[in-house]
Each structure stands twice: as C-alpha cells, then as structure tokens.
Design brief:
The protein is of the alpha/beta class. Helix content is 42%, strand content 14%. The protein has a single domain, classed as Alpha-Beta Barrel (TIM Barrel).
C-alpha cells in the first residue's frame, strides 16, 4: 500500500505531443513545425501540463537530434511558456541514430532536462553510460531514464549497483507500457507487472517515476500510476485516442483528461516550479 503522503503529492503531467514517428497522416493536429509545437505547448500548458517532452524534426519532417535546431526551439518555447517551465528534450534513436550521436547531443547542448533509453545508450557499453551520467552529474543536468521492459529495469539495476549510474544523480524514471512496433493491445496488467518489477528492484526508492502508455488503455494506466504516487506523461507521441477508442481532438484534450484524473484523486497538479523539483532541478542551487 502506498503511503497517503505519496498519493497526495503534486502530480506532474508532462505532455509528449508528437514523438519521432507519427505525422499528419496519423492526426492532422500532430505538431511538426516549431510554430505548431509552440501553439500546442501553450494549449497544453493551459489544460494542465506542467512540463513538455520535446521532439524536433528536420526539413523533411523526419526525427532529428540536431543541436542547433533544438537550441532554437528551446529558446522559442522559453519565450512564451511560463517562467521556469520544464522542457525535456529526447535523445531517442528511433532507428536513425547511434549512441555516439545521442550522447553527443547532450554534450553539445547540455540541456537542463533530457530523456534517454538506458538500453539504447548501453549499445556503447558501460563506458558510454558512465560518460553520459558523469556529464549529467558534473553539469547539473537532469536525465529521465526510459525503461521499456523488465530487461531494461534489470539492466539499470546492474549499472546502478556497479556505480556506472550514480544513484546520487537526481534522475527520474519513465516506464513505457507498450511499443510502436507491437501489434498487441497493452493492458493494465502490463503496467502493474512493470511497476512491481521496478519496486522490487529498489530503483524507485527515493526517485520520482512517471508512466506513459500506448493505445486506448492509456487513461486507465495513467490513473493507476497516479494512485500509486507516480506521475503521468500523455500525448500523441504514445496515443491518439480516448478511452472509448475515438480519436482525440488534440493533445490538450488528452492533457485535460489526465488533469481531471488528478483532481478526482485528490492530487494537486504540479506548478512549473514544483515540476522542476520533481524532475530533479533545484532552483535554490541552480543544479540537480
């Protein structure tokens, strides 16, 4: 049983509005250009999102890890969103990039917040993981470690036990329930299996964790995560539909649904400043 205190903490709603793979053919309101991303981010902020998970595209609308484009987009978003609004960049490979390019992006940009698949970086072995997390520790960056499976959780546990991933770094964790490539519907049981494995590993002790999910069960899975003291990532990167299976009208509609879940469960929605703390950044010290 999760302590009442954990279940009453402010809940962070992070919006992931586009991802690396989908396009306008999947949903006409999926944001691709910088201005579309800005417009969507503002709508989602108003609907209750207290952080943004950012993907950028190149001039052919393909997934990109271009540092100058990221820097320009981050600057544009920071100009219009609330003060200190957390913007997390992705380092996702998406079948296009090698671990050197993923780590190189973080080294070039030094983003305050970034997400990283532990399995993708481990393609470069323990040295690649150590290189990335040493940079994060030295520069006060806040990584979110993406875990797609029980194997990923086991890998991270081994790396943490070996000191390759420093537990003193205030990283957060993201459980991903389902995959783009899977033709199978995910279930609430899939989430509980992942969460149980995470809890048993000890990795979530003292670390904030978040969940995202694919398909029509997304809302139910995020509700379960909120009830267990976790946080929620929602948006068209992972799911385009409501619980009924009907196409959602916008990312903001999905955010508003999750905001209602928070209120129904007595969890206040995190402010941007609270979201900074949840993601590992301390305004007092200026570092993680």
């Amino acid at each position: 049983m999760v302590a009442d205190e954990a279940r009453m903490r402010p809940a962070l709603i992070m919006v992931a509005p586009n991802g690396a793979r989908r396009d306008k053919a999947d949903h006409p309101r999926l944001p691709i250009t910088t201005e579309e991303i800005v417009e969507t981010a503002l709508e989602c902020q108003a609907a209750g999102a207290s952080a943004l998970h950012l993907h950028i595209r190149d001039d052919k609308a393909a997934h990109s890890l271009d540092a100058p484009t990221y820097a320009m987009t981050l600057s544009r978003l920071s100009d219009v969103l609330a003060e200190n609004y957390p913007i997390q960049i992705t380092t996702e490979a998406a079948g296009r990039f090698e671990w050197q390019e993923q780590v190189g992006l973080v080294e070039a940009l030094e983003p305050r917040f970034f997400s990283v698949s532990i399995a993708e970086i481990y393609r470069g072995g323990a040295d690649a993981v150590s290189r990335l997390f040493l940079l994060a520790s030295l520069r006060g960056l806040c990584p979110q470690i993406i875990l797609y499976s029980v194997d990923d959780i086991a890998l991270l546990a081994r790396l943490a036990a070996a000191g390759t991933v420093d537990r003193a770094t205030r990283f957060t964790l993201l459980l991903v329930v389902g995959r783009y490539q899977s033709g199978e519907d995910v279930s609430l049981q899939d989430f509980h299996a992942l969460h149980q494995t995470l809890t048993q590993s000890g990795l979530s002790d003292g670390q904030n964790w978040m969940v995202c999910a694919f398909g029509r069960v997304e809302t139910d899975i995020l509700a379960a995560a909120l009830e267990l003291g976790g946080h929620a990532r929602v948006g068209f990167e992972n799911s385009l539909v409501n619980t009924s299976g009907a196409l959602a009208s916008s990312n903001a509609e999905r955010v508003a649904t999750i905001a209602d879940l928070c209120r129904d469960r007595g969890r206040p929605i995190a402010t941007p400043t609270q979201a900074l703390e949840i993601l590992g950044h301390s305004l007092a010290s200026g570092t993680a």
